[in-house]
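pls ignore typos typing on phone
tryptophanyl-5'AMP + seq
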Amino acid sequence: MSRVLTGIQSSGKPHLGNLLGAILPAIELAEKQSEPAYLFIADLHALTVIRDAETLRENTYAVAATWLAAGLDPEKHVFFRQSDVPEVCELAWYLGCLTPYPMLANAHSFKEKSGHLAEVSAGLFTYPVLMAADILLYQTDLVPVGKDQKQHLEITRDIAGAFNRAYGEVFKLPEGIYREEVMILPGIDGRKMSKSYGNTLDPLGDLNELYKRVKRIVTDAKPLDAPKDPENCTIFKLYSVVAPPEAVENMRERYLSGGYGYGQAKEALYEALVQRFSAEREAYHRWISDKPALEAILQKGAEKARAEAHKTLSRVRQKVGVQGALSSIFS
Ligand code: TYM
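k done
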């Protein structure tokens, strides 16, 4: 029996990378287990970038609608909003007190994000500690994530080990699950697809917008006649994860033989995105237009998550000494 957990930040509407790199593989892995998975919307993490309440709420519903449109069954699994379980913040504090400063200062994602910001917040710095708390609070076994989160998983394991050594065994050491065939998807400018780079494709949103963005994918300047290198082309990389295998082979051959232009490849990619996600797009629109239904599902999920969170947190409180040794007599 393995408990699966993963989260998606609500710093924007989920994009193709989130869907293929995390949401769909997480649901698939969750369905293979005999116990409920913990799948959530990391809205507290999104506060490291979002400064507007309405935007955060809207993004949070958009992430919720995406999870459900992708096939998450909220009756079977524990589906919740991170901030509805405030216990996670308390655990993050205890963990932070055991986290070496250099481990956070040297984290790749902190260095990368802080490198292009005018102001760097303490929240951004301690982001991996809150993520460790998300994972450890629910005694997670498996964490399906994209490869960009590997270091965060290593930090989580280090923190769990440090706590267990200092106070005795409380936390399970979680394992990151990175699917080899799912790469870090490039965005339309060729860098990692990321909300913070503004280079995303949203296959569940407005199709005109999707078409325009596919048309903006950056390529080299080879003329139509010239043979092209599929392995170094963003259009081909994206096509290869959304189109059926025979269609991908066909495009590869056309690239290699020449006489096939990037404009044609972009049309093919757009069509593949429309087809691959048509059921999810329809479901997304149904969910996003029924916020009361989304809210009711999230509230129910939060109740289940909090019950589980309490079990771990009361053990942690005892261990660190903030709860009196006799407190159970009075509760
Ligand atoms: P976030 O919201 O940045 O990304 C959510 C998931 O999507 C994956 N991902 C990608 N996969 C492939 N190609 C891409 N271009 C791409 N961009 C993003 C990420 O690897 C991730 O799996 N810190 C997490 C959120 C989080 C979390 C957690 C995850 C908070 N607490 C606890 C797991 C467990 C994050 O940055 O997500």
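The CA atoms of residues 107 and 151 lie 7 Å apart. The longest helix spans residues 291-320. more later
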